[in-house]
């Protein structure tokens, strides 16, 4: 893994001017996600939505992936956001790093942006945007102030629905429209519900996926998502069930 996101330069909050807006957005995202089916992937969204702008302002300066500098107090303040971004980074490690490098080189002009916005990415798939911004945040060639702006964009993206499966889908399959991502989400949720009250079975699941184009890639995406869930499960029964599906 690269050195990570480093914001250990001179403190200068970048979120204060939008603190009220961000707090309102956080509350709306929390309400929107509260009705979702619980899973470690979806829980990431909910946790992100509950982070207030004041928390971000206090911790963004000392944030790094992989290691932290500073006092024990700052380490405690940054632990929540650091964990969330580490979780996102863990998803990126599930793919060939050459694909991320190629993406970064192709979009090297983004390093020259002074005021980046999501609109400048145009119709680029959401998963590809998450991967690209993440790679920029790891780059040693991106200035600290620009990293802070891209970090805000990334946090906005991670508050949206289905960013995890969108990222895994892009990494594993390539460019997919929203319909394609929803199809993977449906299969992923059906795999999780195997042997549930709905009466679903792995046989039914495989019959549904067998005719998909590039089904091996689709399967790999779903297995990676389930594997990511598995690493966060505390219930022994859930671990056994998910392990059996992956196997």
UniProtKB/TrEMBL annotation:
InterPro entries: HrpJ-like
GO cellular component: outer membrane
Biological process, per Gene Ontology: secretion
Top-level taxon of the source organism: Bacteria
Domain Hypersensitivity response secretion-like HrpJ: 56-211
Protein's recorded name: Type III secretion system LEE gatekeeper SepL
Source organism: Escherichia coli
